């Protein structure tokens, strides 16, 4: 689908409820950020580069891309566009550039003990940026204000990281999580949404034990404020949530309980039972087709989080990036990976490929598929590294590399209401770009070959960002 190419003068417009409007001025680069910056010039020309614009269109070879004050001002063949006088010129012959990744199921916490998540925002935001993520939505938080405060610090140039759409603490009913509040009915749901919205959070997430009445009240309150609600559901089915007006559902169809035969109203039958029902589901049969039609008709987006389910599936490769963890956390996950590999009767042997097929069927039916990673579970899902892996897994699921890149960039920008500014490469848009030494249109694994990450025209060195936290992720 073609993307509108807005003029620079329109960049100040913003959809209600989205993140702060990108400024036409270059972003602040504070002292704490400066050490990670490799390119910082008000006027740049990237020449000879292969442009993969994020729309799904074929790559354009030998392009010149001109950036002024953080915005793309010119884009075209190198033979027709000359670098402007005074611009800093980067010869990127043989490289590719894709839009900065826009990922919508991310967290600033990680499993550090039984039922406990360590708050690792300071290190995680650096890893996300190093991995090419320039905008992210935190898919729920268990700390209160850290996500919001980090978002503000990053916007002020006091920390290196992606722009953050900060999701408030989870909206959930009675539960066993040590770091999660339990709501007490619909009025309480409205109060919780109102409180966190007034504090500055920009998204909400419903969780597994919420009731239909609470979810409906939360959605209504959020929508009154121009904000969206997503959900990792269980007690409420996908069809019920769609009828209540939810905007997004997490984990593709892995979390759906619509097909549990004896599902009781407002009761979570357990994730395992839901997963077994999905593993046995026929994507060509009427029940699944009917649910897909409901979601598409109600404009409910799905977020693919194949990375977290891969860590639960025997026979899958060891995740990349484990070396950034503290030795104890690294060893902890390696032991988990070894145990998973020996689980002969694991439902995930069937569930992972089935989940991939269902996500593909949803997208082919016209549904909006987004991408995220979910660094939770038993570990092994590391920011940045897993975002790159998410695109590889989408290709394994049957999407073309260009489609996978669009899912990880353009689609999420549209969902967040920021597609006038980010998500694709076009004149007038923010210069959020990832420079790669390969060609991911031909080999999606080349998304790992990151040379530079540009956020609002400032070029960051991914190696320095990763080195700054290596061996210490798990502490801060």
Short structural description:
The protein has 476 residues and is of the alpha/beta class. The chain contains 14 helices and 19 strands.
Keywords:
single chain, 476 residues, alpha/beta, Urease, subunit C, domain 1, TIM Barrel, 2 domains, 9-stranded mixed sheet, 5-stranded parallel sheet, 19 strands, 19% strand, globular, disordered N terminus
Biggest beta sheet attributes = 9 strands, mixed
Mean pLDDT: 94
Task: Using the alpha-carbon principal axes, give the shape.
Answer: globular
The CATH architecture name of the largest domain reads Alpha-Beta Barrel
Based on CA atoms alone, the radius of gyration comes out at 21 Å
How far the N terminus sits from the C terminus, by CA atoms, comes to 42 Å
Strand content is 15-25%
Name the structural class. Answer: alpha/beta
Q: Give the helix tally.
A: 14
At the fourth level of CATH, the homologous superfamily of the largest domain is: Metal-dependent hydrolases
Unreliable runs, pLDDT <50, ≥5 residues? 1-23
How many domains? 2
CATH class of the largest domain: Alpha Beta
* Strands, total number: 19
Question: Could you explain the architecture of this structure?
Answer:
This protein is α/β, with parallel strands linked by helices and 476 residues long. The protein folds into two domains: 8-99 and 429-467, Urease, subunit C, domain 1; 101-415, Alpha-Beta Barrel (TIM Barrel). It has helices at 31-34, 121-130, 146-155, 186-199, 212-224, 238-244, 271-279, 286-297, 306-310, 327-341, 348-364, 385-396, 401-415, 462-467, and strands spanning 37-39, 43-51, 60-68, 71-77, 88-91, 96-99, 101-106, 109-113, 116-119, 133-138, 163-165, 203-206, 228-231, 248-250, 301-304, 369-371, 433-436, 450-455, 458-460. The strands form four sheets. Strands 1, 2, 3, 4, 5, 6, 17, 18 and 19 form a nine-stranded mixed β-sheet that branches. Strands 12-13-14-15-16 form a five-stranded parallel β-sheet. Helix 6 (238-244) links the parallel strand 13 and strand 14 (248-250). Helix 4 packs parallel to helix 5 (212-224), helix 7 packs across helix 11 (348-364) and helix 12 (385-396) crosses helix 13. The protein is globular, with a radius of gyration of 21 Å.
């Amino acid at each position: 689908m073609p993307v509108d190419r807005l003029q620079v003068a329109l960049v100040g417009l913003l959809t209600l409820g989205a993140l702060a409007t990108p400024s036409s001025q270059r972003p602040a680069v504070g002292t704490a950020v400066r050490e990670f910056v490799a390119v910082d010039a008000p006027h740049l020309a990237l020449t000879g580069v292969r442009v993969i614009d994020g729309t799904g269109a074929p790559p354009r070879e030998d392009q010149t891309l001109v950036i002024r004050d953080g915005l793309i001002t010119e884009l075209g063949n190198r033979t027709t566009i000359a670098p402007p006088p005074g611009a800093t010129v980067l010869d990127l012959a043989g490289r590719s550039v894709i839009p900065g990744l826009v990922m919508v199921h991310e967290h600033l916490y990680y499993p550090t003990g039984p039922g406990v998540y360590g708050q690792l925002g300071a290190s995680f935001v650096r890893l996300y940026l190093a991995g090419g993520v320039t905008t992210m939505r935190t898919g729920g938080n268990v700390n209160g204000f850290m996500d919001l405060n980090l978002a503000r610090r990053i916007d002020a140039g006091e920390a290196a990281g992606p722009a953050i759409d900060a999701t408030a603490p989870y909206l959930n009913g009675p539960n066993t999580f040590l770091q999660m509040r339990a709501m007490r009915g619909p009025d309480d749901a409205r109060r919780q949404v109102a409180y966190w919205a007034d504090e500055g959070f920009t998204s909400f997430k419903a969780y597994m034990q919420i009731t239909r009445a609470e979810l409906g009240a939360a959605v209504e309150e959020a929508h009154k404020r121009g904000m969206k609600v997503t959900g990792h559901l269980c007690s409420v089915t996908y069809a019920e949530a769609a009828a209540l007006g939810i905007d997004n559902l997490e984990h593709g169809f892995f979390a759906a309980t619509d097909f549990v035969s004896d599902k009781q109203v407002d009761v979570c039958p357990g994730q395992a039972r839901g997963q077994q029902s999905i593993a046995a589901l026929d994507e060509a049969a009427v029940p699944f087709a009917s649910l897909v039609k409901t979601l598409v008709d109600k404009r409910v987006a799905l977020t693919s989080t194949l990375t977290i389910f891969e860590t639960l599936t025997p026979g899958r490769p060891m995740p990349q990036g484990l070396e950034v963890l503290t030795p104890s956390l690294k060893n902890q996950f390696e032991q988990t990976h070894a145990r998973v590999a020996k689980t002969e009767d694991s439902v995930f042997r069937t569930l992972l490929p089935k989940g991939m097929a269902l996500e593909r069927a949803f997208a082919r039916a016209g549904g909006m598929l987004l991408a995220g990673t979910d660094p939770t579970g038993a570990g092994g899902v590391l920011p940045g590294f897993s975002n790159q892996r998410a695109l590889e897994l989408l290709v394994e699921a049957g999407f073309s590399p260009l489609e996978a890149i669009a899912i990880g960039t353009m689609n999420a920008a549209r969902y967040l209401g920021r597609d006038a500014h980010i998500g694709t490469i076009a004149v007038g848009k923010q210069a959020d770009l990832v420079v790669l030494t390969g060609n991911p249109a031909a080999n999606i694994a080349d998304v790992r070959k990151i040379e530079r990450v540009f956020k609002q025209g400032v070029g960051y060195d991914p190696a320095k960002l990763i080195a700054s936290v290596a061996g210490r992720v798990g502490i801060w």
